[in-house]
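Summary for the funding panel

The consortium committed to producing paired sequence-structure records for every protein in the target list. Below we show the first two records in order, beginning with the earlier of the two.
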Amino acid sequence: MPLESVKLEDVATNRNIMIRFVSYLVDHHAIENMRFWLEAQIFKYEKDPQKCREGAQKIYDRYFGPKGVGINVEEEHLVAELESKVKRPDRTIFMLVQNGIWGLLKLECFPRFKTLEGLDDKEVPKKKIKVLTKKDGVQEVIDLLDKFLELNTLFPTDEAGVFRPTVLPNDAYREHLHTTLPDIDELFKDRDLFLAFREYLYQQLAHENLSFYVEAVNFETLTDEQEICLRAKQIFDKFIGPQAAQPINLEFMTVERLKKNLSKPTNEAFKTVTEKIWKVLTNEWFPDFVVSPLYLACNDETIEYVKSDGGRSRKRSATIDQYESLCKRLQSEKQKKKNGSKSHPPAGVSPEKEKKVKE
C-alpha cells in the first residue's frame, strides 16, 4: 500500500508502529491527545454503571476540570456538554470529543509522522522503549495502548477485523442516540444525514465540493457522446471555469490537464478531480461535521430543522436531484449485483465501503 494512502485507522492496532507514533507525539508535545484518546476508547467498553460514573469523572477531571491538563478541543460546546453529563454518564459521553481528537491525530500529526518516520513494521528495540518510558507519563500511555489492543482483540469494532475509531465497540445498547458516529459513505443511505452535511457545508462556504462531487459521479454514467460533451462543458463552467458560479479549489496544473481531457471528453474526464474532491470531503469537512451541533441536531429524531429539504431556508437544488439520481444508481447496481452483474462504486468510494453503503 502506498505510504500516502495509509491512514491512522490502518495501523491503530499495530503495536510497533503505534509505539513509534507515541514517541513522535512525545517529541512534539502532543502526547496528551493520544493519552486522552486511549482512555476514552477504553472507557467505551465499560458497562457497569458505577464504574462508568467513576471512570467518566476521572477522565473529565484529568482533562477538563479546573486542574485538568487540557487537550486541543476547539469546540467549547462539547466541553460544556460534558460538564452537564458527567454526573450521569453513559459509554457515549466522550465520543464526540474523542472523534475530534482522532481527527487531529489523523489529519495533522500522523501525516507528519509518516513523512519523518516512515511506516516500517519493525519491532521497537526494548532499549529504545526503556529510554522512551523514562519520560513523564509515557509508560502510562504504553500501558493504555496495550489495554486498548487487548480489548480490541476481544471485542473488535468491525466484524471484518478493520478498526473503526468512531463506533461504540461490542454495542448492545441501541437506545443511545449517539452510539455510532457515521462514516462518510453513509451519506448515500441516509438522506437526512446528507441534507445536514449539505447544510453544514453551506454554513462553512464549502458546499460547492459536495455539489460538484454528486454531479461528476453521475456524469460517469453517461454513454451518449453528444450528452457527454454537453454535460462536461456545463460542469466545467459551473465549478471550474473562470466565471464559475460555484468554483472548487484546484491547482493550476490540475485545471490545465482537465482542459486537455475536455477537448475530447469521455465520461471519465473528471475522474481524477472527483477523487480529489472526495478526499477533501472525507478528510477535511466530514470529521468536523460529525462533532458539530448540526450533526447532533440531525441525529436527534426530535429535531427537524435540518431535515426535509435541508433546512428552513434551504431550498431544493440541483444537488438534491443529483444526489437522488446517485442513490437510485446505487440501488440499481445493488439489484444487478444480486442478479450476478458487476457494479461499480462512485469515484472515491472503495468497493469495501460500497458494500457497507448498500447494506
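The next record, for a separate protein in the list, is shown here:
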Amino acid sequence: MKGLKSEIFRYLKTTVDNVLKPQKLITIRATGEALKRCSGDLPADALLSPVGAGGSLEIFGFSDTEPITWAKFLEKISNSNYRDSWREAITSVMMSSFPDHINVDNSQIIVSSDGSKAYRLILTTVTIYYNDIYDFNIYFVEALQRPDFGDAATTLLLKGLELVCRFRFMFLEDTSQFSSGVIRIKDTQKLPEIASSLLRELDLLNKDARDAKLDDPAKWRVYVSWDDLLQMSKEFRPLEQQIYEIVGRIVQSKRQPELLEPLQKELADVLDGLHKKIRPFNTKLVKQMTRKLEELVPSDDARFIGS
C-alpha cells in the first residue's frame, strides 16, 4: 500500500494542478462549412464561450458566464452605440485567420460598453478538428492607461489640445482618409475597411474625451464662449449621429456591393457638411488653446535655453 501511495504521489507531481488565465478570453466555435457560407460574417449559431473567471462578456455590458450564440450576442448588443464596431472587430479578427492564414489581423481595438476601457483583440490560437469544427481563441487585452503628472490644469489643456488636433486631422484636413474628398473618390470596394477604421477612431476619440473629463462642456469654457459651445454642439451632435448610422450601414453592407455606392455619396456629403460647419469652431479652439499653452511658459524661461 505504501508503494502504491508513493507511485500515485509521484504521478500527481507531474500533472497540472491549476491553469490561470488572467486576461479576458473568449473562444468562438463554428464549422468551416458555415464560415464559408457566411462570406465574411459569422454564422448565427457560432458559439461564444467566455473562458475562466475574467468576466469576458462584461466588456459588452452583460454578465453571462454561459456560452451564447452569435445571433443572441448581436441581439443583446443591438441597442449599444458600439454594436457595429464590436461586430466588425470580432468578425475581422476571426475571418483574417480563416481558413488557415498566418498573418492575422491583431490590430482591432474596441471600447467597453461603459466607455471606460479600450481592449485590443488578439487571436492566439485556431484549433481545427477533423469533424470541421473551428475553435478561435481571442484574448481581450486592456490597453495601458498612463498616469498623469504635473499640474492638473496643464494636463487638461494638453489632453484637450490633443483631442482637438486629432479631430482636425481625421475630418478637416484634405489628406485624411476620412475627409469628404477622399471618401468620394475612393474605390467603393475599400469603403467597408475605411468605415471600420472610422468607427474605431470615433469610439476611441469619445473614450479619451471621457477619460480626461473633457466630455463636460464646462471644461471647454476656459477657451471659448458659451455661445460658441452651444452652437458647436448643435451643429456637431446630429452630424456625429449621421456618421455613426451611415458607417454602420456600410459595415453591414460589405457583402452587398450594389448598396455601397449610394452609401459612399451619403457619407461624403455628411463629412463635407462636417468640414464646413465645424472647421471654424475647431480652428478657434486650436488658436485659443495654443495661446493658453504659450502663457504657461514664462518669458524669462528663455534665458535658460542654451545655458
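Regarding this second record: The two ends are 84 Å apart (CA to CA). The chain has two domains: 19-142, 152-295.
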